[in-house]
Amino acid sequence: MRHCDRPGRPPRDEPTRHLKATGEDLAESPPHELTYAPCGLGATHDGPHAGHLGETDRTQLWVLHG
After folding, report:
1. What is the pTM of this model?
2. Residue 27 — φ and ψ, nearest 5°?
3. Which of 4, 32, 45, 46 could be joined to 39 by an S-S link, Cβ 3.0–4.6 Å?
4. Taking all residues of the chain, what is their mean pLDDT, rounded to a whole number?
């Protein structure tokens, strides 16, 4: 499947807020991995874009963007 790949940035504090809420260690997530998320949805999707920022042992972090 082809992906949309539109670049996007999550709301500034959203990744940090989510990781803190799940008890993850923020030191394990380099800052550059929390600021850019190309859209991982199908190339012809409708609606907002969604990108996968990364994952830790217990959490996968996806964000919606423009």
Report:
1. 0.57
2. -65, -20
3. 4
4. 76
